[in-house]
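Hi R.,

Here's the chain you asked about this morning:
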Amino acid sequence: MGDMTLLACFGLFANPTTVWREYSSMHIDQGLRYYNPLKGITSTVEVGQVHQFLVALSKGYTKSGIVVRLKTLPKRQWLPTSFSWEWFIVRPLLLIVMIYVAGVTLDYVAIGALCSLLVGQAIAVVTSIADGPLTRTEEQTEEQSNVFFMANGVTIIVKAPGQLFIEATSFKVPGKANSPESLRLVSMMFFMGGVLLVGMSGMLFRISYLAGHIIQAGILVLARRRSLRQQTVNRVEWIVETDKVQGSLNCRRDSYVWAVREVRRQPWDDMEWLRIWNLATGETFSYVEQALASSISSNDEDRSIEDGVVTIPQAHNT
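And the predicted structure, written out as tokens:
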């Protein structure tokens, strides 16, 4: 899901196909749709890797609003910037166990299988890191908000300066639109050759390989149940602001109210984008409008009390 680093070269049971999926592109209206109220535009995500990340992010929450901020990376990420149980502990530990079993039993076929598997994975990983596009740092720092309405009542607002969001979700910046077919073929040949050699290795190594595969899969499933917090996707850092996660968005109109509040720069900014894109019309639009108006009036009252000014309505004689 996230960008690979050199540690992934040593990830046993990591199929190169997983890496080559980073090169996938989405057709029009195939990816997730987002709305940019400030620019008045709506489009869909073109990068398959970003699409998969946002879907996985929404699965960690229910009926909630999430704010995600994007941050540029100054250089290609050859090494990980944060600790990962999967790539620092789980996968290397199982690789060490496999090497130990093959060495103790003097199973040279098994050693050849491990080398072939790792070479196939390394070709895909190194190519992916080298082809990753680097986002440009612009002088324009005006923040843009892009709204996603997901399933399970989840709403995601991605905030990014300038054109960073467009560069991260589209192929405006050349990079992984098309995978290099020759390297893809070579990496898969090495990997499938390693799988063939595993079948020709000794019984003890084959049992260890199968058991390790099952144990690793179980551990990773349990580890990935946690909600995502931070991920590097398409050479951009996606950071979830956990302190701004809004729960209890029981229906879609509550999500509209929360989204407008987050996107607005001033209380008087309009919310016509909900009507223009047919997101909220009729009774739903009126509900959102009334909810926002009541929140503005309550905030004004709180501000008056904090300033030591209390307005008392005057009685009128009739």
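DSSP finds ten helices and seven strands in the chain.

Let me know if you need anything else.
M.
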